[in-house]
Amino acid sequence: MSALILRGGTVVSGSDSKKLNVMIRDDKIETVFEDHELEAILERESDAEVIDVTGKLLFPGFIDPHTHFQMQASKCVTADDFDSGTRAALAGGTTVILDFTTQDKGESLMSALSRWHEMADGHSSCDYGFHMSITDWNEQVHHEIPLMTLEGVTSYKLYMAYPKLRVRDEVFYEVLKAVKNEGGIVGNHCENGDMIDALTADLREEGKLGTEAHPIAHCREIEAEAVQRYLMIAKLAGAPVNIVHLSTKAGLEYAREARKNGQKVMIETCPQYFFLDDSLYSLPDFEGAKYVFSPPARKKEDQDALWEALENGEIDTIGTDHCSFNFATDKHIGEYEFSQIPNGIPGVEHRPVLMYTYGVQTGRISNESFCRVMSENAAKEYGMYPQKGVIAEGSDADIVVWDPDYEGVISAETQVQNVDYTPYEGMKIKGRAQLVFLHGKPAAAEGQVIAKGLGKYVHRDKADLSFRKVGD
Ligand code: DUC
Ligand code: ZN
Ligand code: ZN
User: Fold this and answer.
1) Is the beta carbon of 78 within 6 A of some atom in ligand 1?
2) What does the mean pLDDT of the chain come to?
3) What is the per-residue pLDDT across 85-113, written as a single tens digit (0 to 9) for each?
4) Which atom of ligand 1 is nearest to the CA of 343?
């Protein structure tokens, strides 16, 4: 098979950026080389296709470690399934998504995993893997944990909230110990479910049923206490932990303290916690429902704390929690009471442009930090490195040719996501994925998918958490 050469670009990794050429053969990166080698290589590879990417940045394909595609809520299902969700991801430069497989009560983990494979296999345009959400823990499920490792599942999520999903603290403790033995990692939805229920009951009694009640029922203390409790359980279990979708300054401070005391704590946050605030819940005409997700959008003080943490390298990964519900139909299920609004927002398509525009272009983070939180760290934490997360010899040829100068505006009208709004409507962006290679093939260009259905299941290995040193 003849080679493909990307010539003249700047290859970005988590540690540096260098002007380098990249040669792809079939689905792998064959070599990365300097200009002085170009002539000899072109002579040897006389039938190679050469694409000039001068002035562009080359990033390893982005990884979104947090999506919910084709997720069943109590009265509806998400607008994006694996078909549209992975196309939207790819269009924006994301070449791997990790979705949440959720065990039903009484179900085996194997059965839950098979259901997710059925939804995703043959329907995906970017690569995908699965975290496992355990909702019903027992001895049989315990024995399935090593089996999950063999199936390529090394990360888990448990919930402290949501009646159908949440598990008791002792289950957290048991799962943390079992997953630690497998070299995996457990994430937690850090919200105190009992207190959400109690505050919701109070709000109902007071007749406060509009969207502005959502951030009250899910107030900051609800998250902070859950973070603190999770860290205490992890300490007793002697296990590393992942705090997913962290939204508050108070939660961040607990995580910092635990790190200082020697615990291995991974932190994920999401674009919505940088860009959206709780004033949105007071919008007229039920518009606030577009922003009903959990944990909710917070206050400026929390946003500032998260930006500072990102700048300091304290945030490991940025996921989207993409969970799209149409405003015109699904969100209106909760028209008479906020607690009935299906929780979630879209974001899988726009995460790269948002974080690049408002993170890199503003000078808050470097291209290298962007590379770490958008790709490299997730590849390591979730057992995919160096197959994913780096442009290097032998890695999968998943490459984003990034145009740092493109200017545009985010709009639902032009998005690939199959949902009737975007929470980022009208936001200006600078930079975008001009060309996206998946397994060595051009799969998306200028915001549109050009090769559908190339996505494969990523069989993942143990977590490599060495990039987060104990104590930092
Ligand atoms: N939060 C949401 O808003 N939706 C899906 C799951 C979650 O944790
Ligand atoms: Zn969650
Ligand atoms: Zn989620």
Assistant:
1) no
2) 98
3) 999 999 999 999 999 999 999 999 999 99
4) 3
* 295 CA → ligand 3 middle, Å: 9
Q: How confident is the model at residue 213 (pLDDT cuts 50, 70, 90)?
A: very high
Which tokens go with 259? 């790190």
Per-residue pLDDT averaged across 271-287, rounded?
Answer: 98
Q: What is the pTM of this model?
A: 0.98
Contact call for residues 108 and 75 (beta carbons, < 8 A): no
Ligand 1 pocket, residue 372 CB under 6 Å: no
Q: Is 321 in the pocket of ligand 1 (CB under 6 A)?
A: yes
Strand partners, 96: 63, 127
Q: Which residues contact 392 (CB under 8 A, 6 or more apart)?
A: 13, 29, 32, 386
The predicted structure's pLDDT at residue 1: 85
Confidence of residue 469 (pLDDT cuts 50, 70, 90): confident
Nearest CA to ligand 1 atom 5: 344
pLDDT of residue 471: 67
Contact (Cβ atoms closer than 8 angstroms) between residue 128 and residue 82: yes
> How far apart are the C-alpha atoms of 410 and 423, rounded to whole Å?
9
Q: Could you tell me the domains of the chain?
A: 61-381 (3.20.20.140)
Q: Pairing mode, if any, of strands 28-33 and 21-25? A: antiparallel
> Among positive and negative, which fits the CA dihedral 126, 118, 457, 189?
positive
- Which of 128, 9, 126 is closest to 437 using CA atoms? 126
Pocket flag, ligand 1, residue 290 (CB < 6 Å)? no
What percent helix, strand, coil does the chain show, rounded to 5? 35, 25, 40
Q: How far apart are CA 150 and CA 28, in angstroms?
A: 24
Can you tell me which residue has the tokens 């992890």?
A: 234
pLDDT above 90 as % of the chain: 99
Q: Find the DSSP H helices in 45-162.
A: 82-92, 109-120, 139-150
